[in-house]
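Let us work through a complete example step by step.
Step 1: write down the sequence.
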Amino acid sequence: MKKLVLKAALISTICLLGIWLIRIAWLPLIAIDPTPLIQNRFSSGGTLVDRNENLLRLFPDQNGDYSCYLSLASHSQEIISALLTAEDRNFYSHPGFDPVAISRALIQNISSMKIVSGASTISQQLIRILKPRPRTLSTKISELLAALWLEEKFSKKQILEFYLNSVPMFGNIRGFYLASLLLFKKSPDLLNLGEAATLAAIVQSPGRLSPFNPKSNRLLRKRRDWIIREMLKLGLCTIDEANNAFKLNIPEYRSQMPFNAPHFCDLYQKVRGAPKGKKKTTISLPLQNLLYQTLRSHLPRIAKYGARQTCGLILSAENLEILAMVGSSEFGPIAGGFNNGCVAKRSGGSILKPFLYALALDRGFYPSYVIPDTMQPFKTPQGEYLAYNADRKSYGPVTIRNALGNSLNISAVKMLNQVGISDFYGLLVDLELLPAQKGAADYYGLGLAIGNPELRMLDVARAYSVFANKGRLKSLSFLLQDKTEEKQIISAQSAFLIFDILADPSARLFTFGTPSFFKFSQRWGLKTGTSTNYRDSWLIALNGNYIIALWVGNFDGSPTRSLSGASACGPIARNIIDNLEKGATERIITCPPGIQKVKICSISGQRPGKFCPNIGYDLFEGNADELLPCQFHQSATATHELAPDYARWIQNRARQNNSDPFRLRGNPEIQDPYQIAGIYQEEDASASETSRLVAGGALPDAVWNDIRIISPHDGDRFVMRSTNENFLHLRAIPAAPVSELIWLINGREFIRTAPPFEAYWPMRAGKHRITAISEGEAAAEVTVYIEN
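Step 2: predict the structure and record it as tokens.
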């Protein structure tokens, strides 16, 4: 009997060797091509990893299994040695099948009259993994032939790498990498001898040798110890290493699957579909954890003010890689935590103002240009619009630098009125903050300057990158391999000037002061935003390295208790920036050509003259001689002489200050605007001594448009209340200083008003022409309609 067994083994070996010798000619004709099998195996399912190969999330393949591809070089030598000792000791010397192992198995199985030993090589097992079929004699032959072709097409290292990444381990886990992480919380290159032998032992029978119940855990330990003893016999480990490995307890519980940056992974899947294979994202897991932990640490503080949610982003300023994304305070059902606040549309408050002033700078304005921060109503398709600053104060003459730095609403609305709503809306479309829609500019109106559109944080952070990249808008990167696209939006000079303003602590002293959370080691540009009723609190911080976007509020839109962008997000930003600055080399945002530092009058923002009491400096694009000479200081007085726009502002200051350095140019007398005089007579009362009639309302010598009637507006309609007296507020602003304006109602003189050129007229039903004229025959006229 023994001779027959030996003879059969010899014949089988000779036949197999003969098959191998003529393999090149006939293998393509009769064997399964392994290449499509390998491609199919690793094209199904996928993994998102961070920029340093840390796992973010696994996506199942078509069979519901999870794996993560890892190179052979990233597996420890202990794993390779343990696996080959257990499964294929002649791996590096056989051609795809092992004649010696086949002979040995054949002898053992015939002698025992049952299958007690297998002879499948790693190559044959890989074919079985790639194309599972019932284990019959014909499939064994097919697998052997496919293994031969596999060895012809791929190197030993490649075959071993394929095997290590596809072999079933436990449950629906494939590959040593994921099994190592879940069972030992280590990557494969860090496994010791006992841990490596444990994983190698599981391969023989993942179901029977599962570590997760006591009985199979004992069987697994027995198999593992046998592998270690065999390695000791082969000289692959020392006795001390073997003894230490024998002592290792095999865990009976596995760790949870990786689930990092959940909102980012969800967004990636939504935008680009489930990944195929391993995709290296732009996420930095240390920064992701920093952002998440920092936001979480501030929850108790903001909860005191009625805020339950927060979210944030960190982008690379240079190439717009998404380094960290936290879409809610906790990914879960509480307070809508499954929502991704980074892509939810929220009111931006003042967050758009830098783009408005960038447009103004591109139009020829400059940082020291003065805007009258004084109350003024504007006519809009939706009715009269009156902007207020957040603190309900007016600041008089303010430069663009101070208007933006202090986030003044009145100044922003006036600047938008000058540059044009449609043009500003067009810029926001170019920045991809808003979609191009017909009539949208009129719909948003002047409120576009102070945050009535709803915006996505991801878009806002991207748009702010133009200030760090010389006015160029770049595409966002989800993967390190993404190609960057860019387009020029604003000039490099305007981009730098806006960043310089945002990074200037002195520019925000009026409203923000110098809080400790706005003090940093490096130069950071900051912009906050707060929506109506304190529903949304925003902060954007940027320098040459990073763009940080933060939001605090409630996903259901409920208001907070007076949380502003600064108070809610400022301390969070400080914690994040302090960590980012540690050991980081700052990428400086450099000043482009064409910008110079010039002397200015600190009050007027214009070229200083000999009477200007305070001289400062600001940045200016172009020739400094283009700056207008100071109009506020024309004589050797201790006052600042302002244009008629400031009449009401000066009058209001007079109520609070005994001595005020501001006065109207020419020093005309300022009256109380809350007067009611020249009570209107019926139309037949032409004999009134206090009322002069201008025939037909004609003003043949008038210079129109040198006066602006800002209340009421032309075409306004009013409905009088029956229970109260009804008065119409009259207000005008002359272009040049005058001592008084004459108001006409339907061509008849109503009243003469000194600065601030305001009065109240008792309304009457009907159509009325309201005219304002000055001593110099400048005039303006509007028509209003009044109903009972």
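Step 3: interpret the result. The first helix runs from residue 2 to 21.
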